[in-house]
Specification:
By secondary structure, this protein is of the alpha+beta class. The chain has 13 helices and 16 strands. The structure holds adenosine-5'-triphosphate and manganese (II) ion.
């Protein structure tokens, strides 16, 4: 007998009346006076459950079945039947039900069959995947990741794995976690930590971006991307920031900024279509549960209905309306989240792409524009979520790059890899970083980034 999932059954692959063998966790149990119990079984293969009919003729009916509670795990052997009364097409007439794991004290089980808030569920990160909501988000995250790989593959990109442990600060921002095998207790006693005694013989960090390594492969294989975790030791405790998050970073030789923007838009469109096809039931579940704007969001990405606008023009708009903002804004300053929200939710009411930021607020590697004040950069900003993509054309001219390194007080020696790419057969190239969790937030309408990654790490907060 084959082990099958609820998804296999609902997709209609299994013949009616055939004997099936299925396992999962009980959501609810209802008993009729006639000595029949209806078990709602969930196995996580899809958003739907399957009804199991357990009759009093089962040998362990009284002993086991009548004491099943939410969360118990069981294995069912039975016959697949067409369901007449149930809203679902199928049910299983049980022949045998084995109890795999009971719950001794159901009052202590934190995940009841009732509604729980996402805040409550965050206290039980290891059990919350059993809820419909976290299950749906998890499957959507899978489909999204898979469709990103698929899109990149179809576009002729190669996935490369870039190191997580690094000795350079990609962004030049200094918000990095140290990695060390030293006994820090001892080292801190001796005041200045001697990193030359450390594992790699120097100070190393968890990477904030795979871009530098990515550029080296793009300047050889033309089109590559990275897809992996990145780390930021920022103390920001917002609903949109994690200390460990996943980023997709395509890097393309011979691409201009406009080419990169096109690619980003195509990618968002493609993956949204895939989500609508392959995660339809999960999206629908979330949509019904929260009455949010999931479909509007997906459609906005699919129709690529984005505003393209220059940073300078954005500043003019914001300054014109400056009295509504808490944070002051003028040319040369970075936008804060309230500015991003105003532009995407009130002023334009759609996603926007802001281009050509001032050089002082962007990373050293962005290509300087002819005005010598701005860099060839772009951010894609979505309603409710803010920035999901940051990208640029890279500075491919060695003299210009060196000037920028000096301006940022960065040590040329440490950027040897980067400088060599400019010295030996340099080419114009561009790339961007897409935050996976921010995209899931937008697609699902989930408000807090801690709910779209299995085990969130944030400032002052780590479980498991
Ligand atoms: P923000 O200004 O929103 O903090 P950033 O400009 O620091 O973002 P980048 O360095 O441009 O971010 O990173 C590229 C993308 O990675 C961002 O557009 C965003 O989607 C995502 N991202 C950046 N920081 C975080 C974070 N702390 N948690 C989750 N996603 C992030
Ligand atoms: Mn950015």
């Amino acid at each position: 007998m084959n082990l099958i999932s609820i998804l296999d059954i609902l997709q209609g692959y299994i013949q009616i009346d055939s004997e099936v063998y299925i396992q999962g966790w009980v959501k609810t149990r209802r008993d009729s006076k006639l000595g029949i119990s209806f078990l709602i079984l969930y196995d996580g293969s899809c958003i739907d459950c399957l009804q199991i009919i357990a009759n009093k003729s089962l040998i362990n009916y009284k002993k086991d079945i009548l004491s099943l509670t939410t969360g118990c795990s069981i294995r069912v052997t039975g016959y697949l039947k067409k369901s007449l009364k149930n809203k679902q097409k199928y049910e299983i007439q049980a022949k045998k039900i084995e109890i795999l794991g009971k719950i001794k004290n159901p009052d202590t089980y934190p995940i009841s069959s009732k509604y729980h808030t996402t805040e409550y569920l965050r206290k039980f990160l290891h059990l919350r995947p059993r809820t419909y909501l976290i299950g749906a988000i998890t499957r959507i995250r899978h489909v999204l990741s898979k469709s990103i790989h698929q899109f990149m593959h179809e576009q002729g990109f190669f996935w490369i794995s870039t190191p997580l442990i690094t000795s350079i600060d990609t962004e030049g921002s200094g918000k990095m976690f140290n990695v060390s095998s030293l006994n820090l207790n001892n080292s801190i006693c001796s005041k200045k930590i001697k990193f030359n005694n450390d594992f790699f013989g120097k100070e190393v960090f968890l990477t904030v971006s795979g871009q530098l390594a990515g550029e080296s492969y793009a300047c050889a294989l033309s089109k590559i991307y990275t897809f992996g975790p990145t780390f930021r030791a920022e103390h920001s405790n917002t609903r949109r920031h994690l200390s460990e998050f996943w980023m997709i970073e395509p890097e393309m030789a011979f691409y201009t900024l406009e080419d990169a923007i096109n690619l980003a838009e195509e990618m968002l469109k493609y993956v949204s279509q895939e989500i609508l096809i392959h995660s339809y039931d999960d999206i629908n579940f979330i949509y019904k549960g929260t009455k949010n704007t999931v479909y509007k969001h997906l459609n906005q990405l699919i129709t690529k209905n984005f505003i393209h606008i220059d940073y300078t023009e954005v500043i003019n708009i914001l300054m014109y309306h400056e009295n509504i903002f808490k944070n002051k804004i003028s040319w040369g300053m970075d936008l804060s989240f309230e500015h991003e929200c105003y532009l995407t939710e009130k002023y334009f009411q759609k996603p926007i792409i802001i281009k050509n930021y001032p050089k002082n607020i962007k990373a050293f590697y962005m290509r300087i524009n002819d005005d010598l004040k701005t860099v060839s950069s772009m951010d894609i900003i979505l309603p409710g979520v803010g920035e999901i993509i940051g990208g640029s054309q890279r500075e491919e001219r060695i003299q210009e790059l060196d000037k920028r390194l000096e301006e940022f007080n960065l040590n040329k020696k440490e950027y040897k890899l980067y400088r060599d790419l400019r010295k030996y057969g340099t080419v114009p190239h561009s790339g961007f970083g897409l935050g996976l969790e921010r995209l899931i937030m937008y697609i699902t309408g989930i408000r807090n980034i801690r709910d779209v990654i299995p085990f969130p790490r944030t400032f002052n907060n780590i479980d498991f």
